[in-house]
Amino acid sequence: MQIYWTKINKIIEETPEIKTYMLDCPEGFTWEEGSHIHLALEGFNAGEKPNRNLIRHMSISTLPHEKSIGITTRIKEECSEFKSILRNMKIGEEVAVFKTHSNVPLKREDKNVYLLSSGVGLATFRPLVLDYFERADNVNHIHSLNIDSSRDFLFTNIFASLPNKKFTSQFVDNRNDYYDEVKKLAADKDGIFYVVGSDEFLVHNIEVLRAQGVKAEQIMLDKHEQTKSEFLAF
Fold first, then answer.
1. Distance CA 43, CA 39 (A)
2. Helices then strands, each counted (H, E), the chain
3. I want to staple 20 with a disulfide (CB 3.0 to 4.6 A). Which of 72, 82, 139, 223 is the partner?
4. Average pLDDT by consecutive 10-residue portion of the chain (234 residues)?
5. Which CATH class is domain 111-232?
């Protein structure tokens, strides 16, 4: 396993609680849309065993042509050791990245694609949408639905409806409205439904989608295959 030490080159305050850390892209390092990465802080590998408190599995919110690895995360006032250290890091400081993989690349099967997310989960979908804007081949339409009770909606410059590009975007701030919209979207029995959020959020969405007749193979989760099968096994 190759570990890349790289520097923070920019910190973007997306909302009062959400920041994007832009990291220099190491030579030869690449990824595809929907990828996640392991982000580690100084000292994580100082002992005999890695300090897992200093490692997090994070989505990459950028595409390679943006020339930086974007990590978008919510940091609350009360947070973990990892988030507390990250919050105080400055431009020029180093972090480690390793083991990148995509569980949710954009499927191009001449179908409608629905992106269902909660809060900062939208960061996983940002590269999919940008990839679609650059090349719309074999995707009929993309619809994004995001719920965030804070109302500090993320990436509103990108997640804005563009009828000419066959892209629509919705933001809601409460569960009732969100699940009402999910039920409407699930009327498309041939659509592909991506879901990103907490495990609880995934379970609720799967229950609603399956109750509306959406098949397990139409539901895409940002999980390894075995874990995905466990979520969908009912």
1. 12
2. 5, 11
3. 72
4. 94 95 93 95 90 94 96 93 96 96 94 97 96 97 96 94 97 96 96 95 95 95 82 76
5. alpha beta
